[in-house]
Design brief:
The protein is built from eight helices and 16 strands. β9, α3 and β10 form a beta-alpha-beta unit. The chain binds NADP nicotinamide-adenine-dinucleotide phosphate.
Length: about 325
């Protein structure tokens, strides 16, 4: 079958469209014929070597962890699935998706209803993460408002849509006016270019000096601490990545200094559901229902052939993606 593989870490140039053996599912696996494949930050982390866990699988490591298609075969212990079902795969293995076929443990496979648009399915995980960030990890604040910086991407789009659906005031920023314009089309109430305006001024102004309840931070780094300046009482900073470096211990100590504001910090990884399948299933059902009913509308940025995965990664590395970037087989 055709697949996109890497033999070493590096830039988009290490992605190689190649012929590899078609996988054979074991007893607990499901074999899926992919139609669409999601391109996202986790693929960047694997490709670039920021996540080195998979280096042992070189050469011919098929990258990618999210895809959607039709079940072709089912292992003996995966009897609840059947060939012909429409599914989305969010592979906790972290590899295998940039291919015509993927064989994965059944726990990573979600059956979709017939009316679910398959082309939108690779972005499904973003909605699961957004739901979890908002309704599970984000509990314990007054929950009136949230701020997300760099909000035009896949998670940002899903988080904005989910928050607006739930009546939460959304403050969102991005690095360019074009991305800000895109975020406005999603309906966010307060949008600004963080290169031109001070986050603290905009947020305090928009919230009447109260501050924002939830700050979704994917960067951390040296600017982590200043976020407490515009956090409401009982507010929480929720880290879902730390692209600019994990907060240092003295930065984390700030939460003690902030005791008179009852501030909180939480680190979140979706892997919390690896040992919580029932909880994950509840979220899956809610997100499927919201998408099928049209309450949430996934936004596609581009849909390129699998053979152009390199071009997709160049788009991602330039940080120009708004909504979800996918490949088709
Ligand atoms: N914790 C979890 O379980 C979990 C699950 C899934 C994803 N994630 C994380 O969620 C984040 C967003 O994922 P996504 O798929 O939505 O990503 P995305 O679409 O590629 O990007 C999101 C936004 O982040 C900003 N950005 C991109 N590269 C950056 C960099 N190197 N440094 C700083 N900012 C950068 C950009 O906004 P601006 O140009 O406007 O700044 C971009 O629009 C990623 O960091 C991903 O690893 C976490």
């Amino acid at each position: 079958m055709k697949a996109v593989v890497i033999d070493r870490f590096g830039g988009p140039e290490v992605l190689r469209y190649s012929e590899v053996p078609k996988p054979v599912p074991n007893d607990e696996e499901v074999l899926v014929r992919n139609a669409y494949i999601g391109v996202g930050k986790p693929d960047f982390l694997v490709r670039s070597g920021k996540d080195t866990l998979l280096a042992g699988r070189f050469p011919n490591l098929v990258i990618g962890n999210e895809c959607a298609g039709i079940i072709e075969a089912v292992g003996r212990e995966a009897g609840e699935f059947r060939p012909g079902q429409k599914v989305v795969v969010n592979s906790g293995l972290g590899y295998g998706a940039y291919a015509e076929y993927i064989a994965v443990p059944k726990k990573f496979v979600t059956v979709l209803p017939e009316e679910y648009p398959l082309q939108s399915a690779p972005g499904f995980l973003n909605y699961l993460v957004a739901y979890a960030l908002l309704n599970e990890a984000g509990r314990g604040t007054d929950g009136q408002s949230l701020y997300i910086r760099g909000a035009a991407g896949g998670i940002g789009t899903a988080l904005i849509q989910t928050a607006l659906l739930q009546g939460i005031d959304v403050i969102a920023s991005a690095s360019t006016d074009q991305k800000c314009e895109y975020i406005r089309t999603l309906g966010a109430q307060c949008v600004f270019n963080y290169n031109n305006e001070q986050q603290k001024d905009v947020i305090l102004d928009h919230t009447g000096g109260r501050g924002v309840d939830l700050i979704y931070d994917q960067r951390a780094g040296v600017r982590f601490r200043e976020q407490f300046d515009y956090l409401a009482d009982f507010g929480m900073i929720l880290l879902y990545n730390w692209l600019e470096g994990c907060p240092s211990l003295d930065q984390l100590d700030t939460v003690i200094e902030q005791a008179n504001h009852a501030s909180a910090i939480r680190f979140f990884s979706f892997h919390v559901y690896d040992h919580n399948p029932e909880r994950l299933e509840k979220i899956r059902r809610i997100c499927i229902e919201r998408i099928v009913s049209g309450q949430l509308k996934p936004v596609l940025y581009d849909d390129l052939p699998l053979s152009e995965a390199r071009r997709a990664h160049e788009q991602m590395d330039r940080g120009e993606v708004m909504g979800k970037l996918i490949l088709h087989v």
